[in-house]
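Figure 6 in text form: structure in, sequence out.
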């Protein structure tokens, strides 16, 4: 199942990274494991951000989890932790989106001295909830799904026409809108492909 476990905004300082804001969805873990899982996710997020160059992206796979990281040129960093099925493109689009919004709401001169308790950025949990389903959240994926559904409907429509007893050959013969060349091409193609039909 596609799942996002954590989103985090960090500041990459000279010696270490600081979490400025984070949101977690740990309901799939047992109640007694959640605090340990959250601590580990925070630790690994900070570690990978510290080892990522400014203006660079990284994807780190660990077991069944993926950690997507983007450190901007201004040292603001975003982290998304998900399962392996979550699309990388959608993950990095989301990271870019919430980092841009964070940068517009929290002044850059506050980043080096801020921490999670001093930063007001309440939309991160909303992003976490919205992007659980990447097909709904990502416009390109949503358009592709809509096109796939349309293609299925079109295939069903042609199949329905043929099931009513009409043959495509008869329709081509009756058509006034097709030129003689188009009809000849169709017949030639039909003959050529007839060797493949069983």
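Output sequence:
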């Amino acid at each position: 199942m596609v799942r996002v476990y954590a989103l985090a905004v960090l500041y990459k300082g000279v010696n270490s990274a600081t979490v400025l804001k984070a949101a977690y969805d740990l309901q799939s873990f047992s109640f007694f494991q959640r605090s340990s899982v959250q601590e580990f996710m925070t630790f690994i997020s900070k570690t990978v951000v510290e080892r990522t160059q400014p203006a660079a992206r990284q994807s780190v796979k660990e077991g069944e989890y993926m950690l997507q990281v983007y450190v901007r040129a201004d040292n603001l960093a975003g982290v998304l932790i998900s399962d392996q099925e979550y699309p990388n493109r959608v993950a990095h689009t989301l990271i870019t989106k919430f980092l841009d919004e964070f940068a517009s709401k929290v002044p850059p001169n506050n980043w080096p001295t801020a921490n999670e308790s001093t930063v007001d950025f309440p939309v991160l949990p909303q992003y976490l909830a919205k992007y659980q389903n990447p097909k709904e959240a990502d416009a390109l994926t949503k358009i592709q799904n809509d096109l796939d559904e349309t293609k299925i409907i079109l295939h069903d429509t042609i199949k329905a026409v043929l099931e009513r007893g009409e043959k495509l050959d008869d329709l081509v013969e009756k058509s006034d809108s097709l030129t003689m060349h188009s009809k000849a091409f169709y017949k030639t193609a039909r003959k050529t492909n007839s060797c493949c039909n069983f």
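Caption detail: The two ends are 40 Å apart (CA to CA).
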